[in-house]
What we know:
This protein is an alpha/beta fold. The chain folds into 2 domains: 3-123 and 304-333, Alpha-Beta Complex (Quinone Oxidoreductase, Chain A, domain 1), CATH 3.90.180; 131-279, Rossmann fold (3-Layer(aba) Sandwich), CATH 3.40.50. Helix content is 24%, strand content 28%. It contains 10 helices and 16 strands. It has helices at 50-53, 107-110, 131-143, 160-171, 183-192, 206-210, 228-232, 264-268, 285-297, 314-323, and strands at 3-9, 22-28, 37-45, 69-70, 72-82, 92-98, 102-105, 113-114, 151-154, 175-180, 197-200, 217-222, 236-244, 272-275, 305-309, 329-333. Strands 3, 5, 6, 7, 8, 15 and 16 form a 7-stranded mixed beta sheet that branches. Helix 10 (314-323) links the parallel strand 15 (305-309) and strand 16 (329-333). Helix 3 (131-143) crosses helix 4 (160-171) and helix 3 (131-143) packs across helix 9 (285-297). The longest helix is centred in the middle third of the chain and has 13 residues, at 131-143. InterPro entries: ADH-like_C (IPR013149), ADH_N_2 (IPR041694), ER (IPR020843), GroES-like_sf (IPR011032), MDR_fam (IPR045010), NAD(P)-bd_dom_sf (IPR036291). Pfam families: ADH_N_2, ADH_zinc_N. Keywords: Oxidoreductase. Residues 20-332 form the Enoyl reductase (ER) domain. This is NADP-dependent oxidoreductase.
Amino acid sequence: MASNRFWQLNRRPVDDDVSGALSLETEAMPELADGQVLVKAVYLSMDAGTRMWMTEREDSYQPPLELGTKMVGLVLGHIAASRHAGFAEGDLVRGFGQWAEHAVIEPELSGLVKVDTGISDIKQHFGVLGFNGWTALWGLQETAGVEAGHNVLVSAAAGATGVLACQIAKILGANIYGLAGGPDKCRWLESQLGIAQAIDYKNDDIAAELAKVEGGIDAYFDNVGGPILDDVLPNMALYGRVALCGLLAQYKGDGRGQGPEHFDQILMKRLRVEGFFSPDFMDQGERLTQQLKEWLEQGRIDTPFDVTDGIENVLTAYDKLFTGGNIGKVLVRI
């Protein structure tokens, strides 16, 4: 009888002990109810925001996952079986499923969509053409209002969303500054993406480096939250914007942290601080994808991928998101 392997959430992780909270389980191949599909995974997306779903935090856009259930995450794969009129066997799809070899998905509840099989690398459905690309484009254009000549700062600039935000800001004609951990990542950002300056948040004086930016930072695309904001706020330009899409520094525990020490700068510099999540613009996916695909085909934007093989190695890949062990998008190939 065919079987399915999946990762199960057994308890709430404490600090960095994610591996002690999940276990790799085996089950008989799941049966489908009406309206469901079975997706044979090709790639699983590793996303830092899912760390918050493992906690007990109730005031999130995603309620906490129940203990004893399959870990949820984005899946790219083919329909292996369908009891849904909108999907047929063989369709290439992307949506929220499980960290599993085969994911049972209810399309209406998971954002499941058919995706283009004609692109040269289907991984880009988790890269330029995926939620990371959508987030970068929406955050820069709609939330931060970036225009040509603006000084744009991107945190976690070598991460999955950060690398795309840097490239899109460059396309928009901005001057890009990036924050990344370690000299290797900083050299990569400057040499490969051509940003104006990469600042090593582990070794450099962030505030001192930002103080050198003529005119200040017009737009801060923030993926991490946390104390770095205190280095940024005093160096923002008048009427600058902070677009906050991630809290990487605070996903452990209950995800809460102290407010910024330099909170007064929001008033003194008349700043606009706005949080945004992908659910805010899911209905704009087709429009965002069209623009991103055009840039991708023109060779103006790309995603580096960090790929780990095997369902059994999911936690090894996942750990890279929190240790800085990756450049670009972390995936698991099933």
